[in-house]
């Protein structure tokens, strides 16, 4: 018997064994990833479904705006904004930053800041409400950014022949533009030109539900919360601050 040949064959078999293990694992891995992707693609309801669910908890039994549920509701809108891509980078950053500011203060004393307008009332008393880093300023700009989104979704429902850029531009004109200075307005307008193709956007957010029905319901139910914020801020003289 050729011992050198035997040793060589055993060596080859030892080298081949790890490859055979990976070959067995690869189909299993790909199958699991395929199932995961399939589940993601088959989104239950639409991208608005979590938002619509979150609205049920925003107010107390006495009808007062609750801080944590309101901020949690605003967070559920961030995945919707993600679908716009680069066009909404500034909006997402603004919304995310203001949510974080309010949440940080809420977590410092959840009992004290249980109700949303407590932030503003405290800062009015301490004469810090007009500061650029105040919670009052954060709530105001969070509300304004949400005004823009509500108007945008209204436009998409009401004008189904409009391009995404047209819907975004019209919404900006009606909501945020009057509060922005020249630089902010120019930057924002440039970003909106990167709006995605409308059909592709609608396909991505539709899921298994009726996207236009959910979008309209979102505007109808979320809009009044924003109006209530504006009404309160106006009552304390804090609804007309412009970007610095």
TrEMBL record:
Asked if the record carries the keyword Transport, the reply is: yes
Q: Which residues belong to any copy of the Glycolipid transfer protein domain?
A: 66-206
Keywords attached to this entry: Transport
The protein's matches in InterPro entries, at most eight in alphabetical order, are given as: GLTP_sf, Glycolipid_transfer_prot_dom
Q: Which GO terms describe its molecular function?
A: ceramide 1-phosphate binding; ceramide 1-phosphate transfer activity
Top-level lineage group? Eukaryota
Keyword field contains Repressor: no
Q: Which Pfam families match?
A: GLTP (PF08718)
A single GO cellular-component term on record: cytosol
- Name of the protein in question: Glycolipid transfer protein domain-containing protein
- Source organism lineage? Eukaryota, Viridiplantae, Streptophyta, Embryophyta, Tracheophyta
